[in-house]
Amino acid sequence: MVPASEFEAARPQLTALAFRLLGSIHDADDAVQNTWIKASTADTDSLRNPAAWLTTVLTRVCLDQLRMRHRRREEPLSADMIPAEAVAADERYLRREHVSRALLVVLDQLTPAQRIAYVLHDLFDTPFREVANTLDTSPDNAKKHASRARRRIEHAEPTQGGKPADNAVVDAFLAAAAGGDINRMLALMTDDCVRTAQADLVPPGTPTAVSGASAVAEETTLFADRIRASAPMLVDGHPAYVIAPGGHPLAVINIETSNSHVARINIIRASTHTTFAMPAADTSREPRT
Hints:
Blueprint: H1 4-22, H2 25-41, H3 50-71, H4 84-96, H5 101-107, H6 112-123, H7 128-135, H8 139-153, H9 167-178, H10 182-188, E1 189-197, E2 209-211, H11 213-220, H12 224-228, E3 230-235, E4 238-243, E5 251-258, E6 261-269, E7 276-277
Parallel strand pairs: 1-6
Antiparallel strand pairs: 1-2, 3-4, 3-7, 4-5, 5-6
C-alpha cells in the first residue's frame, strides 16, 4: 500500500486534477477518496514513483465517471439547477486555487478522452505516453485527443455581425458593477441605456427591462455577486461575458456600446446548445498547480 503520509502529500495535487476533470469539488473529493481506498489495498512495494501511480489511478476513476455521464447523455447543469451549497463550494475552491472560470466552462464541452488528454498533458505536463496508458490507447491517439480538445477550447476569430462593442469600456463597466461603484457605472453609460433580461433570471417582480442610466446602475448593484462570477468568453462565436458561479454556466451578458459608452445590456440564459470558447486575450492555460 501507499503510505498515508505520501498520499496526504499528494492529496492537493490529486484534488486539483480531479476538480478540473470533473468540474465539482464534491465529485473531486469522492474521486480522491476512492483513489485512497485503492492505494491502501494495492501491492505497491515495487513502485518507483508512487505520486505518478496515484495520478494514474485517480485519472481512471475520473474517466469512469466522465464516461458514465457520457453514456447517460447527461448535459452540464445550469448553475441554478445545482444545489446552492455545491455551487458555493465549487466557487470557493475555484477562487482559492485560482482556477480559470472560463476554462471550466469549456472543458464541459469535451468528450471524456479529450478532457483527460487535455487536462493531463496541457495543464499538468503529463507525457503523452502516460496519458495513453491511462486512456488505454496509443500515444499518437492521445495526442489527437488533446489536439481536438485544443481546437474546441482555444479561441477562434470572433464571428462578424452585429454592432461591435468597445471591449475596454465593457470591461471597465463590469469591473465597476462588480464593485458596486455607481458613479463609475454612470460615467460609462449613455443616458438612455437599457437593460433587458429573461424573466427567469431576475427575482419575481423585477422588470425584465429597465431604462435610463440611473435606474440601470442602481439595479445592477443588486447583482454584483453574479457579475463577480463572470468571465469574458466567446459565446456562439461572439464576445460576451458568461456568468458561471463555480464554473457552472448560468447566463450570458451581451453589451452594446455607442460612442465609447454602454448603451444596451442584454442578459440571456445559457442553453445546452450554446457553444463556448476561450477569448482571444486568454491563452486557455493556467499556472501550474
